[in-house]
């Protein structure tokens, strides 16, 4: 078994001495709108040998002669309009200079020759290290398990020349079997040991999830609107060229074998994003997205979905940087896979709908996402942390409290809280949900009490003489509910509150979903919660007004009878 020759941009397994430095450099470059990305991080000795053999030369050192082999160097390359660029002329020249400045500020350095001239512009490495010392096992302090395990695997799988370097001391090693056990097992399997097989064909978990990918990544296509160009079984011409380490033709893509395609999928997407370490449901959605939208974007969607659910790792949300580091992997393993996978697919679908090519490929993408949701539901649910409702404590009055205080001033905090609970439940409840009679009575009592206070504490609310007679303007007096906010406003809204409230609720609920745009639609969408609360209150006020009118009518009837 040998290591891959594929390029890796995974910074999560780099030595901790540069892991955060690389992230800091990249983040600062992005803040300055300089489009550098990590092109290559850890590099296997097999890949180093392959690069050394290229003509014309792209490197002058062989296996274990590059700092890349020890996880202490990276290559930064410009990525402009989705394409890698090594151009260092014209306006781009300043970009490379700035990248090197940031490297030096963060304890890393570009490569210089003996004359002090800069060579290999993309390459930056930890200051003060040499490949000769590293080969002897003189590693920087602070190497963690992720780095040590990755380097240890490279060393274990290396069979070429020169001999592998000394392993890091903190590599977790499985203890050897006892000699008698070894002898017994060798007797049992002698002569029956199968030959080496391709990893993709012998990994049952990968094959289980890969069945979905094979179903949706069909045969050869070369669509003019597909930026990936010629593609076969989901492998683009660019991906195949990178995998083989040489230029390929459209015909090479057409003749791609199923076996090679599966190996590329497993190495470049499934293994590169460590799907084998994730719960099945998360492994499936991350793997599918890595194939469809890229490895880094898949990790960004994980981080965004996790944060959107309000989940935290070590008391903090995840940094959305597309890097599958310790925190992000802990989040994936610790969250409920069913909920996180669903939130992930929602985020991915939103992204697909925003792409310029959605009118061309959108129907197929959405069909694929629908099928993915069905397939994911057949996988193990798993267990983990579920989203929790967070409570924030503040002494600032909410919009609803301020509204109630204006409508009914002077109420104590207990009365206001009772009304807030009732109105909030009214807004959040399903249509037709029943409100408890006690709550209705409480609210009616508060409103009626406020109206009586406006009219005078000694004024009987349902005095028959008052209800039958007309006011000074010749119009019937307003009921206490309708008069709660004053004569002018009460008459303006008399008979219109229920209709206004219901119409407002319907518009607030459905206007943003009608597919129209404009300032009003944007305002409604941005303030939907406050508008729902306001129109619910107006609707409730109208309903209580009608109840008050009914009581008033009963008083009139009773007064007539007594007369």
UniProtKB/TrEMBL annotation:
It comes from the Bacteria. This is Peptidoglycan L-alanyl-D-glutamate endopeptidase CwlK. Residues 212-294 form the TtsA-like Glycoside hydrolase family domain. Gene3D superfamilies: 3.30.1380.10, Chitosanase, subunit A, domain 1. InterPro entries: Lysozyme-like_dom_sf (IPR023346), TtsA-like_GH18_dom (IPR008565), Zn_M74/Hedgehog-like (IPR009045). CDD domains: L-Ala-D-Glu_peptidase_like, N-acetylmuramidase_GH108. Pfam families: Glyco_hydro_108.
């Amino acid at each position: 078994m040998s290591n891959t020759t594929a390029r890796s941009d995974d910074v999560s397994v780099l030595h901790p001495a540069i892991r955060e430095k690389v992230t800091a450099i990249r983040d600062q470059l992005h803040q300055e709108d300089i489009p550098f990305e990590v092109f290559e991080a850890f590099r296997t000795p097999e890949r180093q040998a392959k690069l050394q053999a290229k003509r014309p030369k792209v490197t002058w050192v062989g296996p274990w002669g590059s700092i890349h082999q020890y996880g202490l160097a990276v290559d930064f390359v410009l990525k402009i309009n989705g394409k890698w660029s090594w151009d260092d002329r014209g306006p781009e020249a300043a970009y490379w200079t700035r990248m090197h400045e940031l490297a030096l500020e963060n304890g890393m350095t570009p490569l210089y020759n003996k004359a002090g001239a800069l060579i290999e512009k993309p390459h930056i490495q930890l200051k003060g290290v040499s490949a000769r010392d590293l080969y002897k096992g003189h590693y920087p302090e602070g190497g963690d398990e992720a780095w040590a395990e990755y380097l240890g695997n490279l060393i274990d799988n290396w069979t070429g020349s020169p001999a592998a370097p000394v392993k890091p001391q903190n590599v977790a090693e499985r203890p050897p079997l006892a000699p008698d056990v070894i002898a017994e097992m060798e007797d049992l399997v002698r002569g029956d040991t199968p030959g080496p097989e391709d990893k993709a064909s012998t990994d049952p978990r990968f094959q289980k999830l890969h069945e979905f990918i094979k179903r949706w990544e069909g045969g050869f296509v070369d669509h003019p609107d597909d930026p990936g160009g010629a593609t076969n079984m989901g492998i683009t011409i660019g991906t195949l060229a990178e995998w083989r380490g040489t230029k390929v033709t459209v015909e090479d893509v057409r003749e791609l074998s199923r076996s090679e395609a599966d190996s590329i999928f497993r190495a470049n997407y499934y293994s590169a994003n460590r799907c084998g370490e994730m719960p099945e449901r998360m492994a499936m959605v991350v793997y599918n997205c890595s194939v469809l939208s890229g490895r880094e974007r898949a990790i960004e969607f994980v981080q965004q979905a996790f944060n959107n659910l309000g989940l935290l790792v070590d008391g903090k949300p995840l940094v959305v940087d597309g890097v599958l580091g310790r925190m992000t992997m802990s989040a994936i393993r610790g969250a409920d896979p069913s909920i996180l996978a669903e939130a992930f697919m929602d985020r991915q679908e939103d992204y697909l709908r925003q792409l310029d090519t959605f009118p061309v490929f959108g129907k197929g993408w959405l069909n694929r996402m629908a099928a993915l949701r069905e397939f994911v539901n057949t996988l193990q649910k798993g267990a983990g942390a579920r989203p929790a409702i967070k409570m924030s404590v503040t002494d600032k009055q909410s919009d609803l409290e301020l509204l109630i205080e204006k409508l009914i001033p002077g109420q104590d905090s207990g009365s206001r809280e009772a009304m807030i609970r009732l109105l909030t439940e009214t807004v959040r409840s399903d249509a037709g949900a029943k409100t408890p009679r006690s709550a209705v009575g409480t609210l009616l009592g508060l409103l009626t009490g406020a109206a009586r206070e406006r009219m005078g504490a000694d004024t009987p609310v349902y005095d028959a003489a008052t209800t039958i007679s007309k006011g000074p303007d010749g119009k019937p007096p307003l009921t206490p509910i309708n008069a709660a906010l004053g004569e002018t406003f009460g008459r303006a809204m008399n008979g219109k509150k229920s209709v206004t409230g219901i119409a407002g609720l319907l518009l607030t609920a459905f206007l943003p979903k009608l597919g129209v745009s404009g300032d009003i639609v944007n305002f409604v969408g941005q303030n939907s919660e406050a508008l729902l609360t306001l129109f619910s209150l107006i609707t409730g006020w109208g309903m209580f007004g009608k109840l008050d009118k009914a009581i008033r009518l009963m008083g009139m009837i009773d007064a007539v009878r007594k007369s």
